[in-house]
Amino acid sequence: MSDWMTVFADPNVQWILFGCMLLGLSSGVIGSFAYLRKQSLMGDALAHAALPGVCIAFMLSGSKSIALFLIGAAVAGTAATFGIGYITRHTRIKQDAALAIVLSTFFGLGIVLLTQIQHSGNGNQSGLDKFLFGQAATMMQNDVWIMAIISLVLIGISTLLFKEFKLLSFDPGFARGIGYPVAFLDQLIMFLLVVAVVAGIQAVGVVLMAALLITPAVSARYWTERLGFMVALSGMFGALSGLAGTFISSTGNNLPTGPLIVLVATAVFFFSVLAAPRRGILSKLLLRASARSQARQEQVILQAVRREQDR
Amino acid sequence: MPVHPLTIQNMTVAYEKKPVLRDISFQVPEGKLIGIVGPNGAGKSTLIKAALELIPKLSGDAAIYGKPYAEQRKLVGYVPQRESVDWDFPTNALDVVAMGRYGHLGWFKRPGGVEKKLAMACLAKVGMSEFAGRQISQLSGGQQQRIFLARALAQDAKLYFMDEPFVGVDAATEKAIITLLNELKMQGKTVLVVHHDLATVQEYFDWLMLLNVELIAFGPTEQTFTADKLQQAYGGKLTMLDRDGQSALITSGR
């Protein structure tokens, strides 16, 4: 058996591959809506805000339970979005500046709490420091099952509420006009983003999670003009990045999984920018070249006709 | 006594502390094509948005056919300003028009054959049938405006609100839109249009509202569209040129 085949034979690696694929899939799906709603940075803010939430959940409970982390991250994420909303509504500060302030405050608080935990001598704390950049190798079979459930819920809700999410992303004013509970749907999408972030903390870490939410969506946008197809494609790109990143990491010399997943997603993005039909750079160059040669041909014919007439 | 399509009573709306609309009261008669004009910042769009409960009111009431808007949504169609959305969204014209049916569909249900057929019919009414499958960013400004209009038609409402439907559209589209609005009127529907071109007011609308934070005048166009009242609404910003008995108007800004 060749070297890279042995990787797949290892049951531990199989679980990690499966887990990272699911993570990429679900964050790609929900990330599409965040991207289209121009909330790309919001994903980043939510991911950074999750850190203090998770730390506090750990400090209060003393255990590394995903359910508690989810609650902690959701509370912190809600506090962060509320903070951003409050600042933009009640001051002259624009949303980008508000995001930057809130994001760094929460992240700073998270780092302080993380250091505090590491010095507390709690025997259970090992691995918590991996939340910054993630460590996929620490994923157990149980973690992967939880991720499978999370993915199912995320994709299920996105499928059921596809029509509602679509209208909310395209024209929230009209959605409110026909009676959609826009504030509720807003919060729901935020919450789903938080769920995806928490699912990704272990493997990718809070710092890089935003890339996994947004990059597949941006890449998918290049290939299609249909929302349903874009969301599916974004999920596929995410899953592919998760698989390929984990695979490279497990064959290579101890390269970190999370950053590799993000780099693969970026590679997919660059490929999309170059090669996508219509929107891609190559296709635009080709189109321009063919338009130019056509214009030139027409000119040649025109001149020939004129010469003919002059004679 | 007939119920009015729209009744607004003592409505005041403010952004921050500055009132944008002050103590507005009026009743809209049924089956009329009504223009809403006034200078920049007069609160024209705000009036529509407050009536549709898109923005909060400080005080006052709005009733659609005698009941709160929340109970009457299906009677109301809305055409927002074209610039209010990002047209580089991954969808096509037919799909946007089908969104007009979302309010009738209820949760979870996807638009199916019935909705598609209705959306196609609405596209045909605005002369956009051949663009049904076109990606919306590849439509011209006028075509995008027609798509929004078709979406409002798909809502199959009795009372329509349109926010500046004539902004940035070519002459052909403007003509197509006004023909369509007149058809709606013939069907007994009521249409309120935020408008800024005083030159076409007399030609387009049978009723007119002059607005400048306060309600200046509201009534049949021939009674409302007078030099006196326009001066009142636009203040010094209006220059009137009397030419051959016909008044041509020049406003600064739209």
From TrEMBL, chain A:
InterPro entries: ABC_BtuC-like (IPR037294), ABC_TroCD (IPR001626). GO terms for cellular component: ATP-binding cassette (ABC) transporter complex. It is a multi-pass membrane protein. It is found in: Cell membrane. Its main location: membrane. GO terms for biological process: cellular response to iron ion; response to zinc ion; transmembrane transport. Belongs to the ABC-3 integral membrane protein family. This is Manganese transport system membrane protein MntC. The lineage of its organism: Bacteria, Bacillati, Bacillota, Bacilli, Bacillales.
Automatic annotation (TrEMBL), chain B:
Keywords: ATP-binding, Nucleotide-binding, Transport. Pfam families: ABC_tran. It comes from the Bacteria. The keyword ATP-binding applies. Residues 6-238 form the ABC transporter domain. Signal peptide: none annotated. The keyword Transport applies. InterPro entries: AAA+_ATPase (IPR003593), ABC_transporter-like_ATP-bd (IPR003439), ABC_transporter-like_CS (IPR017871), Metal_Ion_Import_ABC (IPR050153), P-loop_NTPase (IPR027417). One of its GO terms (molecular function) is ATP binding. PANTHER family: IRON TRANSPORT SYSTEM ATP-BINDING PROTEIN HI_0361-RELATED (PTHR42734:SF5), METAL TRANSPORT SYSTEM ATP-BINDING PROTEIN TM_0124-RELATED (PTHR42734). Belongs to the ABC transporter superfamily. This is ATP-binding cassette domain-containing protein. It comes from Paenibacillus sacheonensis.
